[in-house]
Automatic annotation (TrEMBL):
Belongs to the glycosyltransferase 2 family. Its EC number is 2.4.-.-. Gene3D superfamilies: Spore Coat Polysaccharide Biosynthesis Protein SpsA, Chain A. It comes from Metabacillus rhizosphaerae. SUPFAM superfamilies: Nucleotide-diphospho-sugar transferases (SSF53448). Residues 22-163 form the Glycosyltransferase 2-like domain. This is Glycosyltransferase. Keywords: Glycosyltransferase, Transferase. The lineage of its organism: Bacteria, Bacillati, Bacillota, Bacilli, Bacillales. It comes from the Bacteria.
Length: 254
């Protein structure tokens, strides 16, 4: 019996390893980009490609130089994070897409554990828990997210963005159905995409803190809060009725 289990487990591991994961790192003048790249290359799951999309950076580009032989480096004119992500997605040759912000880091087993989770759940997308780190790389929080039931998650999505972009894994085929990031949204492009996805697919949650989200003085969510709030309001007006219909459908057991 044990020999049969071991064979099945080995077959499962072999099947998982055939899946290639593309880790896309959008980069713009971020001094932590070398740490992000290091964490991506250090994944225990080895069938990966790391794509760094330089969105017109003028400083800290030298931090990428030591990694050039191990990554795919794309340079473009500055257009915003959504444009950089879309450029990386278009260049990706993997089966799955992982977004890593250039000031964040991944747990060494993030890709392995999330890929196994997403396949076991037969999902097109999933997200994980995460913890905060500071500029010195010290952990400064407990896991941030809570495991919500489906209706609570949908309500949370209606009021704000409960998904940290650096925690997601998406099957690349999904973009053919729902489209890429909306490049007209400079700051809340992630929120817009998650809603478009949830209107068609479930987004299971892996309750393990597999992303380290860096909190620092120059982070975008602090520098551009009024602009972010305006875009969030635009998105809520765009999708509010559809989310209400989805919530009502789930509450009705349909």
């Amino acid at each position: 019996m044990k020999e049969s289990f071991d064979k099945n487990q080995n077959l499962h591991n072999l099947q998982v390893l055939t899946e290639k994961v593309s880790i896309v790192i959008p980069f713009y003048n971020c001094k932590y980009v070398d740490r992000a790249i290091t964490s991506a290359l250090a994944q225990s799951y080895k069938n990966i490609e790391v794509i760094v999309v330089d969105d017109g950076s003028t400083i800290y580009v030298d931090k990428i130089t030591p990694f050039l032989k191990d990554i795919i480096y794309l340079k473009k004119n500055n257009g915003g994070t959504a444009t950089a992500l879309n450029e990386g997605i278009k260049r990706a040759s993997g089966d799955y897409f992982v977004w890593l912000s250039s000031d964040d880091e991944l747990h060494p087993s993030k890709v392995a554990l999330q890929l196994d989770f997403i396949k076991k759940n037969k999902a097109m997308i999933s997200y994980t828990n995460f913890i905060w780190i500071n500029s010195l790389n010290r952990h400064i929080s407990s896991p941030i997210n809570t495991n919500l039931d489906k209706i609570s998650f949908y309500r949370s999505l209606k009021s704000g963005c409960p998904i940290n972009g650096s925690t997601i894994m998406i099957k690349l085929d999904l973009f053919q159905d729902v489209g890429l990031f909306d490049e007209s949204l400079i700051y809340a492009h992630d929120y817009d995409l998650w809603i478009r996805i949830v209107l068609k697919y479930e987004i299971p949650f892996l309750d393990q803190p597999l992303t380290y989200y860096r909190v620092h003085r120059k982070m975008g969510t602090r520098k551009h809060l009024p602009e972010i709030e305006n875009e969030v309001l635009t998105i809520q007006n765009r999708y509010g009725q559809k989310l209400d219909e989805l919530i009502a459908k789930v509450e009705g057991g349909l």
